[in-house]
């Protein structure tokens, strides 16, 4: 049973090392908690998080209905504009009707067939990366396998030339820094620089694909239309950045969080090594057990009530995915790791209209790297105790050093 006396403190190293006891305390204390340091209402229970993800009285943005001052909020500083132009035109941060239109158009390009066609490439690359790790006698699993695999896959899908691919991860990391709670100005400046550079790069790539279309997602996004409607250039740029950021951040962190959990549960790792048919359920359980995206924020567009607490218009709710995925009302022995868990309604890919469009690809990548490591490094072991990144919202490791 998880302890219940740990405080919720998203900047504390103790909390960041293991937030799940604090979540247990929140769940036992109630269904909604106002948290003054971030001016948010924390929602820790699975049923409430799941319901609010689908509740159209909440939104990822409010600007389709309210001006900043009418919503009781302050406009972002003008110097942050490049980040917000890039971020706010992606479908993750839009609401209907813009979200509906963009997702419909993107779905015409990012189809199940697109994902299936990538599967052989994903599996081949995963094998090559693991072989390289083994040939070198081990190393950092994050830097050698977990990170290069999804970045290369997204780049391949978008049609980014191989020589340019090293640019993508630093840009993505800088932009994603803005998704943490109360990011400092230094983080904002790095995100703005990355937004400008990434936007300029993609604008040139889109112009090239307009002239010489290829068999890639950018070309497909240019061609996608519906009843005469097309994506604007900014919408295409924002979509490409979203697919890269969301498409690899979760996969990178799910991979290293997952293997770190397996090393700490040798009985489960042994069971997986003995039966590779457990890989699909293992992927789901590892994403539930140590959730790569711990929190998802929503604005309250129309007054709501949770467990008798009125949450007024203009408020922000923090939906605690990590807590919801450890809710004993839904999961038997939630603190435990059970790779055979069949009833596993985790919400690591969100829910409702903002359900992760790349979830099928993420599952393919996670399964491919796991199978490659199980077959090509069957005795993989931990070489050094890892350290956590000093982040809360996007949960991951600095590195994970292993030996074959």
Structure description:
The relative contact order is 0.18. This protein has a single domain, classed as Cytochrome P450 (Cytochrome p450). α14 (279-289) packs across α16. It is α+β, with helices and mostly antiparallel strands and 404 residues long. The chain has a 5-stranded mixed sheet. Strands 4-12-11 form a 3-stranded antiparallel sheet. The protein has a two-stranded antiparallel ribbon with strand order 5-6. The protein has helices at residues 13-17, 20-29, 46-53, 81-88, 98-109, 112-135, 141-146, 148-158, 168-176, 185-211, 217-223, 233-264, 266-274, 279-289, 321-324, 359-376; strands spanning 33-35, 40-43, 58-59, 139-140, 225-226, 229-230, 295-300, 304-306, 309-311, 316-320, 381-382, 401-403. A hairpin with a 2-residue loop joins β8 and β9. It is built from 16 helices and 12 strands.
Based on the model shown, name its key terms.
alpha+beta; 404 residues; three-stranded antiparallel β-sheet; 50% helix; Cytochrome p450; 16 helices
